[in-house]
Amino acid sequence: VASTAIVLAVAIPTGIALTRPVARKFSPPVLWVANVGQSFPAYGLFVVAYMWIGRGFIPSVLALAFFSTLPVLRNTMVGIDQVDKAVIEAGRGMGLTRFQALRSIELPLAVPVMLAGVRTALIINVGMAALAFLIGGGGLGVTISAGLKLQQNLVIITGAALTAILALTIDWIAAMAEQFLRPKGLK
Questions:
Q1: Any residues with CB less than 8 A from the CB of 171 and at least 6 apart, and which?
Q2: pLDDT of 111-158, one tens digit each?
Q3: What's the rounded Cα separation, in Å, for the pair 5 and 105?
Q4: CA neighbours within 13 Å on the CB side: how many for 82?
Q5: 181 — phi, psi (to 5°)?
Q6: Among candidates 66, 172, 164, 176, which has minimal Cα distance to 121?
Q7: How many CB atoms within 10 Å of residue 46?
Q8: 102: how many CB neighbours lie within 10 A of its CB?
Q9: Contact predicate 61/3, CB 8 Å
């Protein structure tokens, strides 16, 4: 939850800003940094966080946030860029400022694509969070690790099943939120 909150607080405003004409030139380097987060193996990203910050909850959350920023950032940009320019111009012709057009036209029409990125980030976080135990971040990975150390298959299966159930539950909740937050009239 903490890493997803960080991702939402950083990636959505950044994605919105990068779709504005003034900031478009900064899109390639920002996307490159976000791509670096995804290109690292999950285990490697935790190791880098451990070496840079140390053990515990904070490095785990930051590693998870860095790893799952790209889907939210990219989907925010794609969702806004896919809004028909004629619709935006019609709003501007009716007297909307650029900010009002963004708030009233572009963001509502981009919500389905943006929510798909958030949903992807949530599932990435759940799957990767099982590795957070490696640097003292806790999580269900502790159960799986204990089962491996004790050579107890039932404990391993229980930890893996709980992780899978959590991922499926969060995906279901995100799907319900996606349906609820989708603007009326959009299918």
A1: 119, 122, 123
A2: 889 999 999 999 888 888 888 888 888 788 888 888 888 888 999 999
A3: 25
A4: 13
A5: -85, -15
A6: 66
A7: 23
A8: 20
A9: yes
* Structure tokens that stand for 168 in this block: 């499926």
CA distance linking residue 91 with residue 20, whole number of Å: 16
> 36-70, pLDDT tens digit by residue?
878 878 788 888 888 898 888 899 999 889 889 99
Distance separating alpha carbons of residues 108 and 186, to the nearest angstrom: 10
pTM of the predicted model as reported, rounded to 2 decimal places = 0.84
What tokens appear for 138 in the block?
């806790």
Token pair 């959505």 in the structure block, residue: 12
d(CA 125, CA 128): 5
Nearest Cα neighbor of 37 from 6, 80, 75, 66 is 66
- Within 10 A of 49 (CB to CB), how many other CB atoms are there? 25
Which structure tokens are listed for 55? 């053990």
